[in-house]
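Tokens for chain A. Residues wanted.
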């Protein structure tokens, strides 16, 4: 017997085993389906109709003898906003993006957008210039909250000191109308590090 004859006999045995396995699997599958059908029919016949009366002994078996006590849900407190810290009396002025207010800085406005020293676009009612750290949130008494996003000129700091805030406006007329005020300033939030 040569090698090729032994290979063909092996292949024939494998085919025969595969065919037997398939037949056994098919028989098992059909038996399972038939048993499922029979058991399903038997349980449907033995169950009562939904509108059948309930026997009194069935009620006592269903109701457990358990007393539930009320559970108190803990109150979730939102973190309290820290109290503003009085920084003192500040010199409050106003400015806009014009050449009168900003000098040489007014000439370099990419796409007409006014950027502050913090690198963000300045917005009226939000932005201010101050020697305080960039990103500091302050509350100016009677005027509201502002974010330090710009710096005043160094000569202004040298002349008037550190306690000053220059509020940004969209136009020169509004900035001029604001004038000069001396108001208390409160620290609302430190800049993110």
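Reply:
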């Amino acid at each position: 017997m040569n090698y090729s004859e032994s290979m063909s006999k092996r292949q024939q045995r494998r085919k025969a085993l595969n065919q037997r396995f398939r037949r056994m699997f098919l028989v098992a599958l059909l038996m399972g389906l038939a048993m499922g059908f029979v058991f399903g029919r038997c349980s449907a016949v033995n169950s009562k109709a939904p509108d059948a009366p309930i026997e009194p002994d069935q009620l006592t078996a269903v109701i457990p003898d358990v007393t539930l006590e009320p559970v108190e849900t803990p109150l979730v407190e939102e973190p309290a906003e820290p109290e503003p810290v009085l920084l003192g009396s500040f010199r409050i002025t106003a400015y806009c993006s014009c050449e009168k207010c900003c000098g040489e800085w007014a000439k370099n406005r990419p796409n007409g957008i006014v950027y502050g020293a913090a690198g963000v676009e300045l917005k009226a009612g939000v932005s201010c210039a101050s020697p305080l750290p960039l990103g500091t949130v302050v509350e100016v008494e009677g005027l509201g909250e502002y974010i330090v996003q710009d710096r005043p000129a160094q000569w202004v700091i040298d002349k008037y000191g550190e306690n000053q805030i220059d509020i940004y406006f969209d136009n020169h007329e509004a900035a001029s109308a604001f004038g000069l005020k001396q108001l208390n300033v409160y620290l609302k939030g430190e800049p993110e590090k």
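Helices lie at 3-46, 56-62, 99-102, 154-160, 172-178. The CA atoms of residues 75 and 103 lie 56 Å apart.
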